[in-house]
């Protein structure tokens, strides 16, 4: 019996051999993968703003005068005709007595001074009587806009000559001493100017120097 089963199985096994194709076709599926690499280059351009003009320290106040910037600061200390031209240099070597471009600037200077000393003080400013007006009283030729000239080397125009009523009066000359009132001062409480001579002393000076790229 076992023999018969084996024969039958062997018979079918042979028949199966005949059913298998002699050549098998193998289909290979092939795919192509395209990889695209995109390189993005980001260029970051940092724009550095141009340096701004400023004052050398925060003790100075920046004033924009259009084509240049000016810094002002009050020198506090006894000042008269002997040291009038040197006190500002004690703040900075480039500092000189400051003039005024207009009434706004003398108001600014007054505010700065009052913030430091809240009572009226007189300060030398950057204006001296011009030589042709020495010994001259206030008149049409030597007036508030013509008797004095700015001494700081940068201030121009006459809008900054903001005198108190009746000034510059050349008081000593008018009182008969013969001394001319050469130096201009400002009063911090009134923001008005006055001329004084070598008989007088004040509490300081308004100093100025050009702003720079610090
Ligand atoms: Ca005067």
From TrEMBL:
InterPro entries: CTDL_fold (IPR016187). SUPFAM superfamilies: C-type lectin-like. Keywords: Signal. This is C-type lectin domain-containing protein. It comes from Caenorhabditis angaria. Residues 1-18 form the signal peptide.
């Amino acid at each position: 019996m076992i023999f018969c089963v084996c024969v039958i199985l062997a018979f079918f096994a042979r028949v199966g051999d005949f059913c298998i194709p002699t050549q098998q076709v193998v289909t290979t599926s092939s795919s192509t993968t395209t990889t695209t690499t995109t390189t993005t280059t980001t260029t970051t351009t940092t724009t550095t703003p141009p340096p701004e003009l400023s004052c050398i320290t925060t003790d100075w106040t920046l004033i924009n005068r259009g084509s240049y910037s000016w810094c002002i600061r009050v020198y506090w200390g006894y000042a008269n005709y002997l040291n009038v031209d040197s006190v500002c240099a004690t703040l900075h070597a480039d500092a000189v007595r400051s003039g005024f471009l207009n009434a706004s600037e003398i108001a600014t200077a007054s505010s700065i001074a009052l913030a430091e000393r809240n009572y009226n003080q007189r300060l030398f400013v950057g204006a001296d009587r011009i030589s042709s007006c020495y010994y001259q009283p206030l008149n049409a030729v030597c007036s508030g806009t013509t008797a004095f000239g700015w001494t700081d080397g940068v201030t121009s125009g006459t809008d900054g000559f903001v005198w108190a009523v009746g000034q510059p009066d050349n008081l000593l000359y008018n009182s008969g001493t013969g001394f001319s009132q050469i130096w201009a001062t400002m009063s911090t409480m009134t923001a008005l100017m006055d001329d004084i001579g070598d008989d007088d002393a004040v509490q300081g000076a308004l100093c100025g120097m050009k702003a720079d790229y610090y």
